[in-house]
Specification:
membrane; about 0% strand; Growth Hormone, Chain: A; mainly alpha; transmembrane transporter activity
């Protein structure tokens, strides 16, 4: 990998900002999931809280990309980081005197999600602006490697700290990580788009332009659809199902869930080192390989429909961690590999001036997918067998393969056209050379 990228100040600070912010977020999310499960004890109620976090994506999402493309990116990101940091620190102080009840959780989920939907499109637009196009694959690989490394420690430490001292200190750590992220952004040099002035009269026009980006290339439409399926099937199954099955159904320890999440990150990190030798197979093929790899872990999950297998997991302190750890490892090994090429493709196709609106549109669609995914999986996990949820999850993974087929076909046709064009130029050159010799 190209380590010289870290000599570029803005790229290094961008990675530091994202890494610290993500560490705090996953640190909080792991503890928050267990805290809510302890308060509710219900898969459906837990799913409702997770679904609530998707509501701002639907309300704020349509305008978030417009704001990202119009406002000063640096000030906007610092403001959002500081607001999230102060909220978490404020909740920590509150927890010293009172119990954090469900109404506070609802508010926190809504507020942080609102900031995230406003923050995300800006962040998405930054990476391609601080590195060269030919460095994007390496930059994306570094970004995933460092961020996934942060995620190894975050879930385990989050569950450990929560189990030892409660939710308050977890909020304090999360608050400081947001403030560190803001400080890193403060020292960044972010390129500005000249001549851009926000005019409210063009708001809806700009929103529509953001959605039209999805259709400028049928391959882009394909990967956007693929992302929708990922957030509809995979994320709800993992974020809702894993903690619910491990802690509530199997009666595992809270730290078991944290260990499983950390194991998943090891798979994600190893995937990054597979990327360089696989680049020769092309973006389309590698995205397909990643999708096929995500289907593999569905097979062992089918055992969850067997009561005897569930009892076997319950009777052991180690089997749940080993089983779900292996599933997570394989799933995120494939997913992280897929994600590098997914990001590299859209970063080279989407116009730079529309990155913010593209990012907001993606977050809106993904938020909508997660909203309904959480609600559906919440119902499926409340049934008498886990097999229903597993089959539904597997169906989603198969649909991802189907959606990727147009991408493969179009890419193959384009490659053939380029090859034919190159051969045509070569023949013309040969003929011109022969004519000159005559």
């Amino acid at each position: 990998m190209n380590f010289s990228l870290f000599r570029q100040r803005s790229f290094a600070l961008l990675i530091i900002s994202e890494a610290t912010s993500l560490f705090g977020t996953f640190f909080l999310n792991a503890a928050f999931a267990l805290y809510v499960l302890n308060l509710t004890g219900s898969a459906e109620k837990f799913a409702a809280v997770l679904a609530l976090g998707m509501v701002p994506y639907l309300i704020v999402g349509p305008i978030a990309g417009v704001l990202a493309d119009r406002f000063d990116k640096k000030k906007w990101m610092i403001l959002l980081d500081v607001l999230r940091g102060m909220l978490c620190i404020g909740l920590f102080v509150f927890s010293l005197f009172e119990t954090i009840t469900m109404p506070f959780i609802y508010f926190t989920v809504l507020f942080i999600s609102t900031c995230e939907i406003c923050y995300g499109p800006v962040f998405i637009s930054l990476l391609p602006s601080v590195v060269k196009e030919e460095e994007l694959v390496s930059a994306n690989s570094f970004e995933k490697t460092i961020n996934e490394t942060m995620k190894i420690l975050a879930p385990f430490l989050g569950t450990l700290v929560y189990s030892l001292v409660g939710i308050g200190p977890v909020l304090l750590v999360n608050g400081f990580t947001f403030l560190i992220s803001a400080l890193a952004i403060f020292f960044m040099v972010i390129p500005k788009v000249e001549g851009v002035i926000f005019r409210q009269i063009h708001l809806f026009k700009d929103m529509w332009e953001g959605f039209k980006v999805f259709f400028i290339d049928k391959r882009l439409t394909s990967i956007v659809s693929n992302a929708f399926l990922t957030h509809f099937f995979m994320y709800p199954f993992i974020l809702l199902g894993f903690p619910y099955i491990i802690v509530t159904i199997l009666g595992g320890k809270e730290t078991d869930y944290g260990i499983v999440e950390s194991i998943s990150t090891i798979g994600a990190i190893l995937a990054i080192f597979i990327v360089p030798p696989m680049k020769k197979f092309g973006v389309a093929n590698n995205i397909g390989i990643g999708i096929l790899g995500m289907c593999v872990p569905v097979i062992p999950l089918l055992f969850l429909g067997n009561p005897d297998f569930i009892q076997l997991l319950k009777d052991s302190d180690y089997y749940p961690v080993l089983f779900f750890g292996l599933i997570s490892f394989l799933l995120f090994l494939a997913f992280s590999f897929y994600l590098v090429f997914f990001a590299t493709f859209y970063q080279t196709v989407v116009p730079r001036e529309l990155f913010g609106r593209y990012g907001a549109g993606m977050m809106l669609l993904n938020g909508l997918a997660r909203l309904f995914g959480f609600l559906i999986f919440g119902y499926l996990f409340s049934l008498d067998s886990l097999l229903y949820a597993v089959i539904f999850f597997g169906t989603g993974m198969l649909l991802k393969i189907v959606v990727h087929i147009p991408f493969m076909v179009i890419t193959k046709n384009l490659e053939q056209q380029r090859k034919q064009a190159a051969q045509g130029k070569e023949r013309v050159g040969t003929q011109l050379g022969a004519g000159a010799n005559e």
